[in-house]
Amino acid sequence: MVADRTVQAALKLVLEPIFEADFLPVSYGFRPKRRAQDAIAEIQRFCTKGYRWVLDADIEAAFDNVSHRAVMDAVRVRGKDKRVLALVKAFLKAGILTEDGQRRDTHTGTPQGGILSPLIFNIALSALDEHLHRDWKPGGRMDAQYPRRKRRRHGLPNWRIVRYADDFAILVHGSADDARALQDEAASVLQPLGLRLSPAKTRIVHIEDGFDFLGFRIQWKRKRGTDKWYVYFFIADRPVRSVKDKIRALTRRTSQANPADVLIRLNQVVHGWTNYFRHAVAKHTFRMLGIFLWRRVIMWFKTLHRWSWKDIRKWFLGPDGSWLPIAVDGVELVNPARTPAITRYRYRGDTIPTPWTIA
């Protein structure tokens, strides 16, 4: 198993620079120097520029269903070494271990958790990026601003795709019908790859109604107290529920775990979560999460030590009547409300650096 992962890592070092030279900047998932926040910033930028309709798309079981033949055809475009191609094919055909320890062959998909899987998937899905941006990429007919303005004057739509692995959004400067046409077009590109759009998770929305993408809630709203409208991104409901479930699991009242170890783990969970979302409109959410976290830990301590509320006040209420930070053996519980620098993420666009020289 260790040898397999070593080979995968070496193969990735060979293939990644080759295919990164061809990947379009509209793809952000599992690529060097790129983040989910870059994808969100791109959506915010173009929605501000009049792209009001959104095809919020999700590919059904994408990593499980991608066609091996389509993947190999895409790899052969740039990869000519037969030994490399043989390794990629062996990786795809490696199979999976069932619960009873039996090996089961796989005829589609890339192995979940494989080091090479995200790169292989991006190579396959680059067909969608290329198709939808065939006229918009550098040197294409619609690359300059003038052709786009000309299309708008003639009532023709413009569009942009923002993709993060199998999640993507197509932003449309046009109408809902234009977005539906692009949905059919995207479905036709995905079909040869063995993929299809999820009927339950794919929808066409107006940016004023908002949509969820990569854990963020993106919505065009009027600024309170003004007549000005802006595109905001908030924290969606699902990641809030998810982090609360993790906190609950760590602070079950029946738990006999070491309190200091629990606080360390809670700090890791909360710090990672707040760091991911700190560029959103998150101040209120962070404050409410801090209250939830404090109550969970206090109620666990109350059960663990058989304390009364009088004991709680004795240990955690300061002389001025304010609550002190929860700390055990030098480990202090983080307060999400004190997350520093909740600022708007700066759009980087084509200035995102690449580790390699692009030919």
UniProtKB/TrEMBL annotation:
<dbReference type="Pfam" id="PF08388">
    <property type="entry name" value="GIIM"/>
</dbReference>
<dbReference type="InterPro" id="IPR013597">
    <property type="entry name" value="Mat_intron_G2"/>
</dbReference>
<keyword id="KW-0695">RNA-directed DNA polymerase</keyword>
<dbReference type="InterPro" id="IPR043502">
    <property type="entry name" value="DNA/RNA_pol_sf"/>
</dbReference>
<keyword id="KW-0808">Transferase</keyword>
<dbReference type="InterPro" id="IPR000477">
    <property type="entry name" value="RT_dom"/>
</dbReference>
<dbReference type="GO" id="GO:0003964">
    <property type="term" value="F:RNA-directed DNA polymerase activity"/>
</dbReference>
<dbReference type="InterPro" id="IPR051083">
    <property type="entry name" value="GrpII_Intron_Splice-Mob/Def"/>
</dbReference>
<dbReference type="Pfam" id="PF00078">
    <property type="entry name" value="RVT_1"/>
</dbReference>
<protein>
    <submittedName>
        <fullName>Group II intron reverse transcriptase/maturase</fullName>
    </submittedName>
</protein>
<feature type="domain" description="Reverse transcriptase">
    <location>
        <begin position="1"/>
        <end position="218"/>
    </location>
</feature>
<keyword id="KW-0548">Nucleotidyltransferase</keyword>
